[in-house]
Amino acid sequence: MEEMETETTKRLQTEIETLKNISEPCQCGTTRYSYSKAYKEGVSYVRGVMEDCGLKTREDGVGNLIGTLPGTEPELSKILSGSHLDTVRCAGAFDGIAGVLCAIEAARMVKESGVPLRHTYEALGMIGEEGTRFGKALLGSQFIAGIYGTDELDEFVGTEDGKTMRQAMNEYGLSGELDGVSRKDENIKAFLEIHGEQGPVLEQGQKEIGIVDTIVGLSWLVVKVTGQAGHSGTVPMNLRKDAGTGAFHLLCRIHDYVYENYCGQATLTAGQVTLSPGSMNSIPGQCEFSLDIRSGEEEIIRDILKHLEQYAEEVSEKYSMQVEVQELTRKEPVKMNTELAGGIEKTCEELGYTNMRLNSGAGHDSMIFAKLWNTAMIFLPNRDGISHHPDEWIDYEAMEAGSRVLYEMIRKLDKEDE
Predict the structure, then answer these.
(1) Which of 100, 134, 179, 327 lies 20 to 30 Å (CA to CA) from residue 58?
(2) Which sign, positive or negative, has the C-alpha torsion 233, 236, 237, 242?
(3) Which pLDDT belongs to residue 1?
(4) Distance CA 204, CA 374 (A)
(5) For residue 2, what pLDDT is reported?
(6) What is the bridge-based pairing of β-strands 273-276 and 286-295?
(7) Residue 178: count of CB within 10 angstroms of its CB
(8) DSSP letter string, 199-259
(9) Distance CA 53, CA 123 (A)
C-alpha cells in the first residue's frame, strides 16, 4: 500500500531488502546458515542498524547479537525483545529477521520520543534458531538459558560439513569462551518476541496482530510396518501381507481420528513414507513413515498417541503383520505469560489494531525463555500463510504495527514498578 508509506515502513523495507540479498549461493531465496560468511555479513549489517538508532552493540560468546539501550535506573530488571538471524536453505526474507528489526525499531521509537526508559532495554538477534547448521534448533536461546554449555561446542557437528560447533565458531572469529552467555540468573522483567505467523489464520481472519497463547507441544514418531514381500502377479490378494496396505490403513485411521475430533486443536502430518523393496512389480514387505503430531494441549497429544497404539494393534491383527511405533522426540506445550498477553491485547485495542488469540504451531526461541522469564509472542500475518519459502511475505505496514505495539508494551512495563 504505497499511499500509506511512512518513514518507518521505508526504513524496514530497505533493511529487509538489504538482508534478503546477503545470502550464501543457493537456487533461490535467501540462505544464511549460522557462522557462515553470509551470516557474518548479515550480523555486521544489523549491528550497523542497531548503532544507527543509538544501541550499544556486542556479540556474546556463541554469536548472539545484542543491542542495548541503557535505562536511567540500571539496577532495575531488563526488558528484552528480538528473534533469530539465521535462515533455512532457500528461505524467505522475513522469518526471524522481521522480529529483530521490529525490536530495533521499538528502540528507535524510544530514542525519538526523547523520553528515556528507566529499565534497560535490549534488542536480540539470535543465532541457530532454525537448526540448519548442526541439526539442533534454538541454539542461541538455549545457550542464553544455560541449557547448553561448553560440552555441546564439541558434541554438535555440522550436518553438511562435519565441523564441530567449536570449529565453526573459531572460523567465524569467536574464541569459544562462554563467560556471560548464560543469563538464566539475570534479572529479566520480560521477553517479547515478534514473528511472522507462518500460517494462514491471521490473514483469513483479517486480523492485524496475533497474540500467542501457547507454543504447541509435539511428538515425532517413526512407524514401521513389516509384512511379507512377494511377486505382484503371483500372490493372491487373500494371501498377501502387503505392508503398504497395512501402513496406509493405519495412517488413514489416525488422520481421520484427528480430523474428526481435534480439527483446529491439533495437527498430524506424515512427511516421509518409504516402501521396501520399492519395486513396481513387488509387494511391499516393509513400509516406514513419520508422524508429526502437534497440539497446544498435552492431553490431546496423549489421546492421539493412545489411539495410534490402538489402531496399530488392529492393523497388526487384521493384516497379520508387525507394527512398531517409536517416538523420537517429545516436547510439551509451552504457555505464554497470560498477563503479558492481556497487555498486548489491550494495547492493540488502544492503537486500533484488529487482533486475535491463537497458538503457535511452530517452535520459537520464546518457548525456551518462557521457562525462565515472563514471555509473550506477537504474530504478524504472512501472506497466503507461506513461510520457509522465497515467496514468504509480511507487509511492511504490519511490521510497523508490530513495532508500535511492542513500543507501547515496553513503555507500560517500564512504568509498572514506579
Answers:
(1) 134
(2) negative
(3) 36
(4) 30
(5) 42
(6) antiparallel
(7) 18
(8) SSHHHHTT-SEEEEEEEPEEEEEEEEEE-B-EETTTS-GGG-B-HHHHHHHHHHHHHHHHH
(9) 11
Which SS3 state, helix, strand or coil, does residue 333 take?
Answer: coil
Candidates 29, 22, 25, 70; CA nearest to 46 is 22
Q: Is 321 helix (H, G, I), strand (E, B) or coil?
A: coil
Using only C-alpha atoms, the chain has a radius of gyration, in whole angstroms, of 24
When pLDDT is averaged across residues 225-251 and rounded to a whole number, the result is 97
* Neighbour tally for 21: CB within 10 Å: 9
Cα of first residue to Cα of last residue in the chain, in angstroms, is 40
Cell of 172: 567465524
Q: How does pLDDT run across 259-298, given as a tens digit for each residue?
A: 999 999 999 999 999 999 999 999 999 999 999 999 999 9
Mean pLDDT of the chain: 96
Note if the bond before 277 is cis, omega within 30 degrees.
Answer: yes
pLDDT tens for each residue of 149-197? 999 999 999 999 999 999 999 999 999 999 999 999 999 999 999 999 9
